[in-house]
Amino acid sequence: MKKLITIVLLLFSASVVASGVPNELGIDGFVNLPIKSLKAIEKNGVIYYVSERGRYIIQGQMIDVWHKKPLDTLKEIKYSANHIKLDVMGMPIDQLNTITIPGGPKKVVAFVDPKCKNCKKFIEEAELKSSRYTFKIIVVPALGEDSNRLAKKLFCAKDKTKALYLLKEQRLDELVAKENCDTKLYDKTLFLAEMLKIRAVPYFFSPTGRTVAGMKDDFWDWLEYE
To answer: Could you tell me which residues are beta bridge partners of residue 139?
Structure first.
């Protein structure tokens, strides 16, 4: 299982897609299928996977590579389709371009952009909810090149003591960068955002792994849903 997971993650990394499948993965070849979505259907106790136009039917065990487990029932498949647990994926959240609002036992992960006004609103409200939640705020450049400059400036900052305040006030330009900054983990932050298809911010992962883009009126209630 571990070897399969490693192969699949490498196969879908940006570098592999760009350069082809390296021989060391032990893959003889691969083909991109014209499938945009799959439906899981159960009949007579057997689960089939049907492509959106009904052209392909796949039979066999499905494995959730991100969650590192086989999916044997429709209930498990439905749960997998509606949850992403970053901790189970093994992502080093605290090593990425992350600011933490420490607090309660329930963890919320939020992807934000340095220039996003709604992200500022979220941070202001999150600070008032820290008795119940711990917030992991991952800063990514969702809104363009200037956002990338600011996000990288945060990552490379010599002193991050006031990072949360400066992010909230959209004043990351005031941070002073280290002379030598290894950006490997910044690049990993960008890779994670791309893998998760973060296109709109703020983007949230609830304590149970449910996801949503934007703060709806019932956002704080939504965090409590399973």
So the answer is: 112
SS (H, E, C) 9-73: HHHCCHHHHHHCCCHHHCCCCCCCCCCCCEEEEEECCEEEEEECCCCCEEECCEEECCCCEEECC
- Distance CA(223)–CA(132), nearest Å, equals 11
Inform me whether the pLDDT recorded for 82 exceeds 90.
yes
Say yes or no to pLDDT of 181 above 70. Answer: yes
Cα(27)–Cα(39) distance, integer angstroms: 27
Which among 76, 140, 86, 83 is positioned nearest to 109, based on CA atoms?
Answer: 86
CB 50 within 8 A of CB 56: yes
* Closest of 66, 72, 24 to residue 47, by C-alpha: 72
**Residues 38/50, Cβ–Cβ less than 8 Å:** yes
* pLDDT tens figures, 5-56: 555 555 555 444 444 555 555 667 778 889 999 999 999 999 999 999 999 9
For the stretch 89-110, pLDDT in tens is 888 999 999 999 999 999 999 9
Integer Cα distance of 147 and 141 in angstroms: 5
- Specify the 3-state DSSP secondary structure of 214: coil
CB distance 189 to 96 below 8 Å: yes
- The amino acid occupying position 176 is V
Gap between the Cα atoms of 29 and 195, Å rounded: 22
Whether the full predicted model's pTM is greater than 0.90, yes or no, is no
| Residue 167 contacts residue 151 (beta carbons within 8 Å) | no
